[in-house]
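Technical annex B. To support the medicinal chemistry partners, we prepared a structural model of the target in complex with iron/sulfur cluster, based solely on the information shown next.
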Amino acid sequence: MIRTINVNIVTETIKDMCIESNYHLSKDMDQALKKAADTEESVLGKKILDQLQENLKIADEDKIPICQDTGMAVIFMEIGQDVHFEGGNLEDSINEGVRRGYTEGYLRKSVVNDPLLRENTKDNTPAIIHYTIVAGDKVKITFAPKGFGSENMSRVFMLKPADGEEGIKNAILTAVSDAGPNACPPMVVGVGIGGDFEKSAIMAKQALTRNADEYSKLPHIRKMEKEVLEKINAFGIGPAGLSGSTTALAVNINTYPTHIAGLPVAVNICCHVNRHTVRIL
Amino acid sequence: MDKYINTPITEEVTADLKYGDYVYITGTIYVARDAAHKRMTEALEKGEELPIPIKDATIYYMGPSPAREGKVIGSAGPTTAGRMDKYAPVLLDLGQKAMIGKGKRNKEVIDAIIRNKAVYFAAVGGAGALLSKCITKSKIICYEDLGAEAVLEIEVLNFPAIVVIDRDGNNLYDMV
Ligand code: SF4
């Protein structure tokens, strides 16, 4: 059976998600930050984490964005193959949702029309949209606006198979240590291992949308996530990069089969304002 | 050490600031980020005047979210200062005394800080809602067409920041 969805519903949903994501962190992030404030060892680090708690409270009460960089709108659309969209072009309806959300929600418009000419589009469009076709008749929308302080510190490493697990860990640790205070720590680190050049990067981005309290289902990857997180926190970069025991809140790794000759590793760094909301239509 | 300071941040003020000091800044400061810095630099190259009085100025690297009706400003936290490294030394040499941002600076900027007895503060990144509470006035003074990147003149009251690079070039991030 084909299920028909009007694109106006997509527009309305995206609009709400823009606003919700920027005013409130998801529960997993909220809890991760609370826990960090309780366990941070440095006095200044603790003071900063307490300020982040206060910041979240003000954002919620005053309906003001958690961070002024309300991001470029990154959207994962998982579309059931039995869905038919009516009422207009899907991509246009998504961008219309972003336009309305960023305007009505008093969110910052941070997109320029051309990477060289750099004229602000004044409505935060276009969004970056990743589509996948899946089984079923539902549409799962994940909205993850991404700030560029941390985005700019992200990297893709095309490692050799011989570099193995050590090479991967070094790549992640290098990216995080280079990012330091620029990425507004405590960070969340999204990693994509395998696939090819672009697949690894998209996996890394998608890994950031995983809940901060969830681990990989693969035992060897789960082990690596825990180990790398521990090593990152041993760096001592700390909240705002001013030293402390909380440098990252989570390391989320996604993997995919790859070529016999390759070992791509993408590290997408996010700040503590790691926004992600999910809606199912 | 906690210190309360007022703008203009002059040489006398920076003389008393050490890396690691926690300061509360009060007074008039200017807001500019990437595109505005590029334009100011181009203006200087053409021999034009800068749109802000640069002597002893404090520039906050920031691009706020829009203000709701009746509010002074939207969310207003710091942006990554390193992107202004290309432009900062010239402005420091012209008299700018303080920068507020977040993240690392390059050697040219640190040299310019030492040369001009200036200071680099970090504000807490991602705390834009909280920091907006310390901003009591805000007005666009030029480059309005740049949207979120327009140059603003703002009044701050006890705006919290940390001295990351003091006028002797000591760098708090290096001690971490
Ligand atoms: S890196 Fe994140 S917290 Fe920092 S300014 Fe950008 S969006 Fe905000």
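Notes passed to the chemistry partners:
Helices of chain B lie at 11-15, 34-45, 88-93, 107-116, 128-132, 172-175.
Chain B is about 25% helix and 30% strand.
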